[in-house]
Write a structure and sequence with these properties.
By secondary structure, the chain is α/β, with parallel strands linked by helices. It has two domains: 164 residues, Rossmann fold (3-Layer(aba) Sandwich); 93 residues. It has eleven helices and eight strands. It has an eight-stranded mixed beta sheet with strand order 1-7-8-6-5-2-3-4, with helices on both faces. Helix 4 runs antiparallel to helix 7. The longest helix has 14 residues. The two termini are 22 Å apart.
């Protein structure tokens, strides 16, 4: 039988610590909807028990990539493989990791952000990989919540009435992009299907997986490729020889899928940038390290 552990039903001294995302190093160029910055302290715990530099971390739904970036920057694994299907997000990672990081960083630093210029960059994004990468960063920074789905709209008021410029930090983005580029010898990026990459590596005992797919409830609103075979993903996770950690929305369907495979699940509290508290599920074969 599986067991769900709701940390906030325990006595105060045993409750799960809620991480404020503002306390975690920001390394990604994205402000990614559904990003896992808040989970990084727990990711560190999980990675520290995996064997360190002898392991390769595979992230089949990379998105903003904060887990892979943390693992690389903090030497928690020897290598990471980042996989992303979304063409725009993939273009950003390809540009940064394939010797064009300086161009992208300079383009962001020199861009005069206005609604008109942002729309123009987005509308002409099909001309080259560079233009798609740049347009994706612009879109991510000017859309409400960083949402990249086609129906997303621009920020209206933003912070202190700054509108679309309230999340545009060109110098910071430039520094992050160049810092990632310096670590590219440890990072492999694949534009493709995360299912296929997991299948190809399922036999490896030296590979571990952080699996953070589009969630069952919120995925359609947030992502271009939001519909996946959730049942198939749980079945695939059960075939992996290496350890894995999954993150999912906390609902009955996720719980039932995990129970069917005999996985352990724990409810964990998080606090987003607006200080709103919510719960998500962590899923794995053994989550006893969470209690340490």
């Amino acid at each position: 039988m599986h067991q769900i552990e709701l940390f906030d039903t325990k006595p105060l001294q045993e409750r799960q610590h809620i991480v404020n995302v503002a306390t975690v190093p920001q390394r990604s160029p994205f402000r990614y909807p559904g990003g896992k910055t808040w989970l990084i302290p727990r990711i560190r715990q999980w990675l520290l028990k995996q064997g360190g530099l002898n392991k390769e971390l595979i992230e089949p739904f990379t998105g903003g990539g904060i887990v892979s970036l943390t693992a690389v920057f903090e030497d928690l694994v020897g290598q990471v493989t980042m996989v992303e299907k979304d063409e725009g997000v993939a273009a950003v990672w390809q540009t940064i990791l394939e010797d064009d990081a300086e161009w992208l960083a300079d383009a962001i630093r020199n861009f005069h952000l206005t609604p008109e210029n942002a729309r123009r960059a987005i509308e002409t994004s099909d001309q080259s990989l560079r233009s798609l990468a740049f347009a994706t960063i612009v879109k991510n920074r000017v859309n409400r919540g960083g949402i990249l789905a086609d129906a997303a709209s621009f920020i209206r008021q933003g912070e202190n009435g700054k509108g679309i410029t309230s999340r545009w930090y060109p110098e910071t983005l430039q520094k992050r992009i160049l810092a990632i580029a310096k670590m590219r010898h440890k990072i492999k990026f694949i534009k493709g299907d995360g299912f296929e990459i997991c299948e190809q590596n399922a036999h490896r005992k030296d590979a571990i997986y952080f699996i953070d797919p589009p969630y069952i409830n919120a995925g359609r609103r947030l992502y271009r490729y939001s519909i996946i075979n959730h049942k198939g993903l749980f079945e695939l996770a059960n075939k992996l020889e290496g350890d894995f950690l999954m993150s999912y929305d906390n609902n009955q369907e996720s719980q039932a899928l995990a129970a069917h495979q005999g996985f352990t699940i724990k409810s964990i509290s998080m606090k987003n940038t607006h200080h709103a508290e919510k719960k998500e599920l962590l899923i794995g074969r053994d989550l006893s390290w969470l209690l340490q």
